[in-house]
Design a protein that fits this description.
alpha+beta
């Protein structure tokens, strides 16, 4: 941010232009007095307004031309003419190059501001650090995700936040990323300010600059626990299915034993319904109500 306002810069340029004009009018023609106006153009570059720079360049050009007519005679015409032409060229070159430079700087600052907004608004932790060292840059997501203030996180080696069982794997993955100069994705656990741990997915891109890396760290705690719960549910269902199947086989074997010993086989579920007690022919007197598609019927 400039320390001076546009009006202050304009007043300063006007004052200096007046001083340089008086000086130019007092010296003989042929002396490069007009080049002093370039300093006025340089001062105008501190302005926010492009039009102010052009205005100062126009005023400086007019005063340079007027100086030809009011300055004391001295020197030949052509050297004097070339001197004033070079002065005008220098004035406008400085002004236009300054405007171009300010435009480039303005665009760069705009992009930096946009990047900073994205950097700070990202729900994922984004940072820059060194292997075995500290983060030099981190966004505000570290506050929400881990509960640490930026200053506290940046002042502590990041490996101190990693679960002790994941330290070796984390350092190995980061070293591999630096050596091979490629993108690496790995998971680990990091300690929150409250003392418990969360699961994170690290997406790391290393550079050749002093073992430096850039990373995006995403909280995947809910995903990890959801996957674990799903696996436990599948195992439990498989176990219950296996247990039910075993009980069904045991019941069939028990029915077969009773049939061999001469005991009648009765379907207790529908003992009053003769249709439901029909026997599957050739299958050891097993009733329809006892059979399921999971059972295997031997050809014998």
């Amino acid at each position: 941010m400039n320390k001076f306002s546009n009006s202050q810069i304009l007043l300063l340029c006007g004052f200096l232009s007046s001083v340089f004009f008086v000086f130019d009018a007092a010296i003989p023609l042929g002396v490069a007095g007009g080049f002093s106006y370039i300093f006025v153009i340089i001062i105008s570059l501190f302005s926010h307004q492009r039009n102010l720079i052009i205005l100062v360049a126009i005023v400086a050009s007019i005063l340079t031309i007027i100086g030809v007519f009011i300055s004391p005679l001295g020197g030949e015409f052509w050297p004097v003419f070339l001197n004033r032409c070079f002065t005008l060229l220098a004035i406008w070159s400085t002004a236009l190059l300054g405007i171009k430079l300010k435009k480039i700087m303005s665009e760069k600052k705009l992009k930096e501001d946009e990047f900073h907004k994205i950097f700070e608004l990202s729900p994922d932790i984004i940072g820059k650090g060194t292997i075995g060292g500290k983060f030099s840059e981190i966004n505000s997501a570290v506050i929400k995700t881990l509960g640490y203030k930026k200053e506290a996180f940046l002042s502590t080696p990041f490996i101190d936040f990693v679960h002790k069982d994941d330290v070796a794997g984390t350092l190995s993955a980061l070293e591999d990323a630096v050596k091979k100069k490629r993108n690496i994705i790995f998971n680990n656990r990091c300690r929150c300010s409250a003392g418990y741990y969360k699961w994170f997915e690290w997406n790391v891109l290393a550079t050749s600059e002093n073992n430096t890396f850039y990373t995006v760290v995403r909280d995947i705690t809910e995903r990890v626990f959801s996957e674990r719960n799903a696996n436990l549910s599948n195992k439990r269902l498989a176990g219950e299915k296996k247990t039910a199947h075993s009980k069904q086989i045991n019941r069939i074997n028990s029915s077969n034993t009773d049939s061999i010993n001469g005991s009648p086989v009765i379907d207790n579920h529908n003992n009053n319904n003769n249709d439901n007690n029909k026997v599957i022919e050739g299958y050891n007197e097993i009733t329809i109500s006892q059979w399921s598609p999971e059972m295997t019927i031997d050809d014998d």
